[in-house]
Amino acid sequence: MSIPCLKKEMMYPKLKVHFKVKRNMKIGELAERSGIAASAIRFYEQEGLLPKAVRGANGYRVYTEAALERLHLIHIGQNLGFTLDAIRAVMALEGAALQDGLMQNFDMRLGEIDQMMEALSAQRQSLLDTREKLREAWAKQECLSNANLSPPTVKNL
Description:
The chain is mainly alpha-helical. It is built from six helices and four strands. The strands form two sheets. A two-stranded antiparallel sheet has the order 1-2. Strand 3 and strand 4 (61-62) form a beta hairpin. Helix 4 runs antiparallel to helix 5 (95-139).
């Protein structure tokens, strides 16, 4: 559920002023708006992925919209298969180093995915071959030994 940015507008003769009101929220609201459990938010904070929250007079954590944006970035990174360490490392970068680091991480992740796809393709072919061996043996009413069923060694994922 997205809440639109809050704006206050003050009108003066021939002068129009716009300013954004920074909206603070407690961890429950941040969890609801981000779709991430409060326990995960505390974990991200503890692990340095999310800056430490300011504490209100009542001792509750108080978060800003920046925390929500950061949680969305963490969520995107995880959905793309990046580890929390990789996300943390990229978030620590700024400027051109951020762009270079992000592209480098994307390239590494694409290479990992290519390797996984190759391994999965080999495993799939091995399964198809083994299934065909079994069908042929059963059609001839033969019994195959384990040695005859052993698929070629496939690189693990």
